[in-house]
Automatic annotation (TrEMBL):
An annotated GO cellular component: acetyl-CoA carboxylase complex
Keyword annotations of the record: ATP-binding, Cytoplasm, Fatty acid biosynthesis, Fatty acid metabolism, Lipid biosynthesis, Lipid metabolism, Nucleotide-binding, Transferase
Catalytic activity: N(6)-carboxybiotinyl-L-lysyl-[protein] + acetyl-CoA = N(6)-biotinyl-L-lysyl-[protein] + malonyl-CoA
Superkingdom classification of source: Bacteria
PANTHER family (UniProt xref): ACETYL-COENZYME A CARBOXYLASE CARBOXYL TRANSFERASE SUBUNIT ALPHA, ACETYL-COENZYME A CARBOXYLASE CARBOXYL TRANSFERASE SUBUNIT ALPHA, CHLOROPLASTIC
HAMAP family the UniProt entry points to: AcetylCoA_CT_alpha
EC number, as in UniProt: 2.1.3.15
Protein's name in the database: Acetyl-coenzyme A carboxylase carboxyl transferase subunit alpha
Alphabetized InterPro entries for the sequence: Acetyl_CoA_COase_a_su (IPR001095), ClpP/crotonase-like_dom_sf (IPR029045), COA_CT_C (IPR011763)
Gene: accA
Pathway: Lipid metabolism; malonyl-CoA biosynthesis; malonyl-CoA from acetyl-CoA: step 1/1
GO biological process, one term: malonyl-CoA biosynthetic process
Protein task: Component of the acetyl coenzyme A carboxylase (ACC) complex. First, biotin carboxylase catalyzes the carboxylation of biotin on its carrier protein (BCCP) and then the CO(2) group is transferred by the carboxyltransferase to acetyl-CoA to form malonyl-CoA.
Principal location: cytoplasm
Length: 318
């Protein structure tokens, strides 16, 4: 059963009302087509109004929704002949990051993504999408392989942040992220990153230093979680909603700030409402960018990436 967010309750009530009317009409052989059409039109208008005016905090809730498609869902629908690789060749395999090779529209690609679980058991297996250092080292291993064989790299970002447990710190979590940032900026092959849910801090950025960065319409991307920011600023994590409203973490905010290159449209209600429509929009975006980037030689690719990174951020002279 789907989780119902607070702002979705009126919508859910109307949806249930339509289901009840259809069931009642069928059981009693009554024609309620007119009444159902009226409520359906009202529901369509309500959905549009609600989802076009979501607050930043509501976007946070939607981005974290357990029903949202995960990296493997997109890989399954976008990448043919996908073969997953495991291990970092130093310590072990981290299942919070999936990485492998496959074909995207007849183009050989390397695909890397944060993977959350869809239920508690899988979330425990995937560590709730929070990678250990071996996850980032696995990702870097696959990136270097992609560079060697001239394969474009596609990354799917969806993490609350890198895991900050004792073992992860002992094995060099900060160093693993830093090495990824440095190496991604230098890769001599096209890189495209898509934020599909949460983009949390350095844990997200370690897969996000790319030639092109896009976000799904209801995803978020920030240096810290709203709960973390409110704990630091106001010593109260319960003020997360207030923090979210000032953080500029939505796809629309970050596009306006020129941190990302574009926003990919989701169906009304979010990506989980119609994954096929989301995938179609994502496919078209990826195909356009892969074709453009593959036309660049190595010098042009690196020069454009450098200029892109240098321009991120907005400042004002005092």
């Amino acid at each position: 059963m789907n989780n119902i967010l607070e702002f979705e309750k009126p919508i859910n009530e109307l949806e249930n009302k339509i289901i009840e009317l259809k069931s009642f009409a069928k059981e009693n052989s009554i024609d309620l087509t007119y009444e159902i059409d009226i409520i359906s039109k009202k529901l369509e208008i309500m959905r549009k109004e609600v989802y076009e005016k979501l607050s930043p905090w509501q976007k946070v809730k939607l981005a974290r929704l357990q029903e949202r498609p995960k990296a493997l869902d997109y890989i399954e629908k976008l990448i043919t002949d996908f073969t997953e690789f495991h291990g970092d060749r130093f310590y072990g395999d981290d299942q919070s990051i999936v990485a492998g090779i496959g074909m995207f529209q007849d183009i050989p690609v390397t695909v890397i993504g944060h993977q959350k679980g869809k239920e508690l058991e899988e979330n425990l297996k995937r560590n709730f999408g929070m990678p250990h250092p071996e996850g980032y080292r696995k990702a870097l291993r696959l990136m270097r392989q992609a560079e060697k064989f001239k394969r474009p790299i596609i990354t799917f970002i969806d993490t609350p942040g890198a895991y900050c447990g004792l073992g992860a710190e002992e094995r060099g979590q900060g160093e693993a992220i830093a090495i990824n940032l440095m190496n991604m900026s230098r890769l001599k092959t096209p890189t495209i990153s898509i934020v599909i849910g949460e983009g949390g801090s350095g844990g997200a950025l370690a897969l996000g230093v790319a030639d092109r960065v896009y976000m799904l319409e209801h995803s978020i991307y920030s240096v810290i979680s709203p709960e973390g920011l409110s704990s630091i600023l106001w010593k109260d994590s319960n003020l997360a909603q207030r923090a979210a409203n000032i953080m500029k973490l939505t796809a629309q905010d970050l596009y306006d700030l020129k941190v990302i290159d574009g926003v990919i449209k989701e169906p009304i209600g979010g990506a989980h409402k119609d994954i096929n429509l989301t995938v179609d929009n994502l496919r078209q975006c990826l195909l356009n960018e892969v074709k453009k980037l593959k036309k660049l030689n190595e010098v042009e690719l690196l020069d454009q990436r450098y200029e892109k990174l240098r321009k991120i951020g907005v400042w004002q002279d005092s």
